[in-house]
Amino acid sequence: MTSGNQILEATGKKIRVCFISPKAYPLFNPAVEKIFGGAEVDLYLIATELAKDEAYDVRFVVGDYGQPDAEVRENVTLHKSLDVEKNFIAQGWKVWRALKRADADIYMHEASSLGTTLIALFSKLHGRRFVYRTAHTYETEGEYFKEFPFRGPFVKWAFRQANPMITQNDQDVQSLMRTQQLGSIVIRNACRIRESLPAKEKMILWVARSLPIKRPDLFLKLAREFPEERFVMICPRGVGDDRYDQLTADAETISNLEFIERVPFHEIDAYFERARVFVCTSDAEGFPNTFVQSSKAATAILSLNVNPDDFLTKNNCGFYAEGDWNAFSATLQEWTGSDAVLALGQNGRAYIKAHNDLGDIIGHYKDIFEAVKTRR
Predict the structure, then answer these.
(1) Would you call 14 helix, strand, or coil by DSSP?
(2) C-beta separation of 131 from 163 below 8 A
(3) Sign of the CA dihedral 130, 136, 138, 141?
(4) DSSP letter, residue 357
(5) DSSP codes, 326-356
(6) pLDDT at 364
(7) What sign does the dihedral 137-138-142-144 (CA atoms) show?
(8) Residue 277 buriedness (CB in 10 A; 0-12 / 13-18 / 19+)
(9) What distance in Å separates the CA atoms of residue 324 and residue 328, rounded to the nearest whole number?
């Protein structure tokens, strides 16, 4: 395969890749205290790592947070587009304009929305390549299209323009073929891994936005069941969550629970590193970034409903309760009284170091981008 440097030498031009994720701007500029999710983290990590390669010119379409129209952070050129707090349909032209300013060979997006369709259409009309990565099992299982019947057909069309289509795990590959007859490839979630870790504390951690699917209420329930244990909940308000104030009020009534509204991305690893147990109460996920963050920090994972590709059971790095609350609670009871839980965390860390290190994962993306560039 032709490498990026060979392409640069032959053409005199870098491979220009543009990532699109409006809510990712706070990752580039931690002074902006706004929320983001796993999809934003994924694209931020890929973009900043790719930008270290001199054969690439990396662009990123972000939202309007009051910054200049264009600026460079971490060797990535950021193009301002829409106000993320306002209606997308009325501002689609701002995204289109930013895509045009980026003038990339390849446009990559993650997490379904009407923006996905806009990016696919732009790429098709301008003869550019569109790459898409799913962010959630709901996209591959088809639940997303049931929940959003109006936008669903447009997003399905966009999926069919993606070349390649990327998923987070093998189960999603099978689901996407079954529900939409679409082929895809797997690229694991990436992370940067520290060589040494601090000592563990007796802390039980939960991290997510306050979206209903994340089931923050169940973590409060768990904390009440274990009044002698220390629980830490990092939970920014999810978009459109009108129950957040009630959640925070309920959390304040639990004396052994520390509720933290927001932790900057560059500081969040410290919580995972100190925790002995990470708890996932979500109804469904793709492959949660929090699983990667926990495992790279050698923290055991206790999951109620989520176990992508049998990750927890195959690698003996946590416990999957298969939706059984009694088993879920009983396992935490067992873990709080034993140091054996530390071995589970080490198993997870060994797996992540072997399969999810950003320095290795970026090679898969380069293979895709370089193949796409040479085919054009």
Answers:
(1) coil
(2) yes
(3) positive
(4) B
(5) HHHHHHHHHHHT-TTHHHHHHHHHHHHHHH-
(6) 96
(7) negative
(8) buried
(9) 6
Instruction: Report pTM.
Output: 0.86
Characterize the bridge pairing of strands 70-73 and 76-80: antiparallel
Q: What SS3 class is residue 66?
A: coil
Place of tokens 């504390």: 201
DSSP designation for 284: -
* Rg of the chain, C-alpha, whole Å: 21
d(CA 13, CA 66): 32
Q: Which residues contact 238 (CB under 8 A, 6 or more apart)?
A: 35, 209, 210, 211, 214, 244
Question: Confidence class of residue 9 from pLDDT cuts 50, 70 and 90?
Answer: low
Q: Evaluate whether 176 touches 145 at the Cβ level (below 8 Å).
A: no
pLDDT in tens, 32-90: 988 888 899 999 999 999 999 999 999 999 999 999 999 999 999 999 999 998 988 89
Q: Which two three-digit tokens encode residue 211?
A: 């979206």
